[in-house]
Amino acid sequence: MNVQKLPQKILSNWELVDVALSLGCIEAKIIPTKNIMLGNWVKLQCQYGCPHYGKLFTCPPCTPNTDDMSDILMDYNQAILIKAASAKDVHQIVLSLEGRLKTLGHYKAFGLEALPCDLCEACTVDTECQFPEAARPTLQACGIDVPQTVSGTGWEVATERSPCSEAYPFGMVLIN
Ligand code: SF4
Fold this sequence. Notes:
The chain is α+β, with helices and mostly antiparallel strands and 176 residues long. The chain has 5 helices and 4 strands. The protein has one domain (13-175). The chain is globular and about 40 Å long. It starts with 12 loop residues before the first helix and ends with a strand.
């Protein structure tokens, strides 16, 4: 019998932000998932501009396309957007935050990170993921328009560089 663990303690938005800050991000904001912008054009940047396309489980075409992501976001009302000192820090922060929220009963919590997965020397994309519990796609890899979504919260964002780079130290955890 599959017992779903419901939130033991509903954290306020402030408390959720405090949890994220305690895990090392420099800024965090709760956003309604309806404010997460998707774009079919995003995939072009992956397919015709990135060496990781088709090479990682956490990159297209392995990741949800825009339609899939639109359906997935329907199952969530809010997410927490985080900003770290460096894009390299985002992976550990969102993974820890996802885990913390799950221990608090937010069983749908799922993290999206900033940079392509580098957990393995060479990704075993033709067989199975070596660290599925830790491998997380980037926002861009899931069809999210990162500049629009981030600037929509009032944060500064560098549009001259491509997401999935050091210029975008942003991550997200879909909460509930
Ligand atoms: S953990 Fe390894 S196998 Fe999994 S996506 Fe990352 S690089 Fe690929």
